[in-house]
Design a protein that fits this description.
109 residues; alpha+beta; five-stranded antiparallel beta sheet; 5 strands; elongated
Amino acid sequence: MQPSHFYLARLDENLYATEKAKAKVTYSAQDPPLPFQFVETTATGELDRASIVSIVMNPTKEDDTFVLGDDAYYCLLVDALDNGNTRTVSELLEEETEQDDRRHAINTI
C-alpha cells in the first residue's frame, strides 16, 4: 500500500449482521496532490470495529477513486484527528455543564 496521510476503508461485510470484533475491509489511500480523492488499493485486512471513526454515506466513485466533497472531507478529518478522545458527546456535554455549575458556584460565593 502506498504511503498516505489518511486512508478510507470500504467495508466488505455488513457490520450490523455480525457480532464480530473485526470487520473485513479494502483500503483506499489518499492521493497527496488531490487530498479529496482516495484511490483504491489492493490492500485488504481486518479493522477493529471500535476504530471506525465515521462513515461516508454514498461517496462519489470515479473509476478506482472515491471523491469526497470538501464538507465530508473536513468532517472526516476532524473525526480522525479527534479520535484520541473516547468520551461520547453526552459525556462531554455533562462535563461542560458540571464545569459551568462549578464556575457559577465560585462566582456566587
